[in-house]
Amino acid sequence: MRPRLHTVVHLCAAVLAAGSLGATLYNGVEQRGAALAFGVLIAVGELTRRNGTRIREAAPLAAAGSLSYALLGETAGRPTQHGAAQVVTVVLAASLLGSVPHVGRGGGPALDPSARRVLTVGFAAVCFQPLYNRGVFDGWGGPAHALLLLALLCLTALCDAVLAAALAHSRTGWPFLPTLRGELRAVPGIGAAVIATGAVMALGVAVVGLWALPVFSVPLLLAQLSYRRYAAVRATYRQTIASLARATEIAGYTPAGHARRVAGLSRAVGRDLGLTEPELTVLEYAALMHDIGQLSLVDPVPDGATAVLPVTEQRRIALLGGAVVRQTGVDPRVAAIVERQADPHREQPLAARIVRVVNAYEEKSREGGPGGPLTALEELRLGTAGAYAPEVVEALARVLSRNTEGAREHGGRSWRGPRTGLSDPGRGWVTHG
Amino acid sequence: MEALPARARAYVACVTVPALLCLLPLVPGSPVPPPGGARFSWWAVALLAALYAGCEHLARSRPAAAPHPGGAFHPVLLAGAFLLPPPAAALVALPGALLLPVERRPYPARRLWRAGRLVLAVWAAGRVHLAVGGREAVADCDVPGALGTAGAAVLAFCLVLTLLDGGFPAPGALPRGRRISAPAAWWRLFLRSLAPITVHGLAGLMMALLWRSPYGPVAALLVLPPMGVSWWAFAQYHRERAAHQATIRALVQAVDIKDGYTRGHSERVGRASMMIARELGMDDERVEVLRFAGILHDVGKLGVPTRLLTKDGPLTPEERRVIELHPEYGHEMVRGISFLGEARAAVLHHHERLDGTGYPYGLSGGQIPESARVVAVADAFDAMTSNRSYSRARPVPVALEELRRCAGAHFDPRMVAALVRAIGRAGWHPAVTADDPRPAGGDTRPDAVPGPVAPAVGRPGARR
């Protein structure tokens, strides 16, 4: 069997780490004070890592510290002598040390983030240290040096994004380009703060010495704190929306778990069609609440199956649902999707098409018994003339086939499994940097 | 133009004049020599001023619900105070503060006020920094010295800002009795602003150090992205939190719409639960959770057919059994919301009774979670003091007497005593919610709500 991409990445990282370790052991550690200070900073940054908060950079301080060590040219005016091998060794040792409590809590070492860290830091260090030690950058004094560091860091961030997207693609089969686009769109947030802090720390240490490390990490810590709170309130909000969505199930209008399944599958289809992360969130909320209009009905629809109702009735329920969603103060885009889920697909926004197709698939496959999924897909393909958008049906077919393959490989885990479960933080694994 | 009280106008003038005096040494040929030497680069002033105005403009163009505590881009101003002579540093704040739009009328006065207070604060910070010898520390890259002197300057900055804010004559002065003393209010404001301004001061110091270094202003600019990102995340946090609360309110309103008679009931039970929790000396976090428990206790009624909820007159045993499912429906709905904590148990058990005759599980005594015992008392109290399809509102003292009578059998005597104490002290003022023009419940409610007068259900404190 051909080796999977993530295995190759892990192997590369392991080879780089082992080589650096060997070289450092052979040559000894230069400038132990600086190495120790940066090591402590990275370890502390790792200690503040919180996985499962669905934010891109789970340990921004550690990332900024490692990058600034890779790009360190001077300490308080004296040139440094450490090479790229020492940078990788120090970063690796400090990261491992900092993740000891995390492993102790049963979190398990996260292989993907570690491999990414080693490879990106190695890239930055290999680009900078040998050339700098050889004096190639001597002409780049003053502001030009700052710009050089910035350019190198941006290049490193680009490589990191490509690596992250490739790992996600290899692990889950998500299409590569939209994933890469999502990774790149996340850079202006905490990613920019990490890049800027990495550059500022390297320059600050060059100007005032190691004092710069504690002082210059304060703004990044503040940013990390703000991001955590934002991520926490977002997680809470998501739980509340999911509960609101279950009101229809409890009231007996829809079968149990319907909203959750439609949301999970809609997200997968949306990802396949290249929606970005914010769009996916809107899609997921809309899918969760797509049936909420039924709360306004006097009598429940049999089995909550709206896909078999007359079109006018479907539209009426959709409009009622939009009105309810508008009242809840959720993003107005969510209400717009819920409202237009029963329109002909040519007039619908993409997210509404997805919700319509996935909802119809879920209802039809549930009725169909064992052969239900296949029959349902076939019905949707035949019915695409007016109601169901063909490109969405094809995306759905791709997602389903991928998940059946994946289910075979990963021991029966399908899209209904815990990875797409609503409150499961594990789904965001690719976003932990 | 909205009239500004004369006192406020005078105050703005009192701030503007000294601010102008601070800037006076910059005028060529002025009688006052600028302190700290006349040697500085106008380029630096222009660059910092443009940076400040640009950042503030960017921050305003983003829709943000709440401003960052202590202003968004003070680091730029403080970096100016650490680099330039005080009058020049004060000038940095001027264009941004004067030119950027203000939200409310009267515009010129508000702009003058904003500019005046910043100019004075930056000038004071620069003056203090100069006096304690911070310039040399920054120039020599002596970090401990620079930290100490910057700390002194930040203290001065914060002091001037909060003093000016605290001195502003309050519009529509509060009644004498309720106003807390001015020094205490100022002290609270000062403590609240000190931490964020200290972080801003640290960032400003980093900017100043890098600005003076061979790497120049380019490197100094790189200090700002983390501050900007943290400001952005902070604003997003507030936006999302507001949206979350709106959603919870909508969840509750959905119940209220189904069950017309309980309009405002959820909010009031939340309020009463909060009063009991406070009275029992619970910490703030738990009080907040219990408020949510009260607000959401009947959310399961969403699952009960509307016909039963609005039925007039007595229910058949079959119908009663259906309605009695609502705690379990409610728990099923909220059990996935982790921040609710013990409020979820309260939703499930708020109809249990101490003697074990309640539902859904017939728990008794200490088996019933404490949160549920709190909500049970609050729920019964509000049910008695507001109109229902099966009973009319009773006066508060009668309801409390009824609760005391049932304490021990139905209700936890501790909770009842706490409610009696809390209401005895603060009274019962059910808030009128903004979207509900009618007076919401309470014993004073007039008969504005048309409703059939059904005979009270035999059991005391009986609720559906």
From TrEMBL, chain A:
SMART domains: HDc. Keywords: Hydrolase, Membrane, Transmembrane, Transmembrane helix. GO terms for molecular function: hydrolase activity. Pfam families: HD (PF01966). Its EC number is 3.1.4.-. This is HD-GYP domain-containing protein. It comes from the Bacteria. The chain crosses the membrane at residues 144-168, 189-213. The lineage of its organism: Bacteria, Bacillati, Actinomycetota, Actinomycetes, Kitasatosporales. Residues 251-373 form the HD/PDEase domain. Residues 403-433 are annotated as: Disordered. InterPro entries: Cyclic_di-GMP/3'3'-cGAMP_PDE (IPR052020), HD/PDEase_dom (IPR003607), HD_domain (IPR006674). The keyword Chaperone does not apply. CDD domains: HDc. It is an enzyme of class 3 (hydrolase).
